[in-house]
UniProtKB/TrEMBL annotation:
Signal peptide: none annotated. It comes from the Archaea. This is SRPBCC domain-containing protein. CDD domains: SRPBCC_4 (cd07822). InterPro entries: Polyketide_cyclase/dehydratase, START-like_dom_sf. Coiled coil: none annotated. It holds the Pfam family Polyketide_cyc2. It comes from Methanoculleus oceani. Gene3D superfamilies: 3.30.530.20. SUPFAM superfamilies: Bet v1-like.
Length: 158
């Protein structure tokens, strides 16, 4: 087994990202994104979120990447900027083992919005997790959620 390379070499860092254009203003997209109680009605990737989107709080999040079993974790909210960004960090056991900083960003785009969902994974287990196809499944989950968010926000109107 080879020793892991330092994080700055790119081996222990991995970003998964997906974006979409939504024909609804940022306020509408934000309202749908932060209405956690309705996630079971429309979200094919994040099955549920319990808690409030307040900086410093812990959420209880259940996800199911396509083709995978669902999993629950308790990330800490890092940033909340109404109509613009929601960011959290989740960790496996201890910091530095397998951390994921997840962010949802919304930016004005013409008469609508650009929605970006991304997660930066860092830690010693990144190379191992990469071998399992987890990042590919996560990316597909992002794409599915982004499409469902777009459909929901556009049908909600402005």
């Amino acid at each position: 087994m080879t020793a892991p390379l330092p994080a700055h070499s790119g081996i222990l860092v991995r970003e998964v990202r997906a974006e979409t254009i939504i024909d609804a203003p940022p306020g509408v997209v934000w309202r749908v994104l932060t209405d956690f109680a309705s996630y079971p009605d429309w979200n094919p990737f994040i099955l549920s979120i319990e808690g409030k989107p307040w900086v410093g709080t812990r959420l209880s999040v259940e996800i199911r990447p396509p083709g995978r079993k669902s999993m629950r974790f308790s990330p800490r909210v890092l940033r909340v900027a109404k109509d613009h960004e929601l960011r959290w960090i989740g960790r496996v056991l201890i910091a530095g083992l397998f951390d994921g900083e997840h962010r949802f960003t919304i930016a004005p785009e013409g008469d609508g919005s650009r929605f970006v969902q991304a997660e930066v994974f860092t830690g010693l287990l990144v190379p191992v997790v990469d071998l399992t196809g987890t990042f590919r499944a996560t990316h597909l989950g992002f794409l599915l959620m982004n499409r469902a968010l777009r459909e929901r926000a556009e049908s909600d109107g402005s």
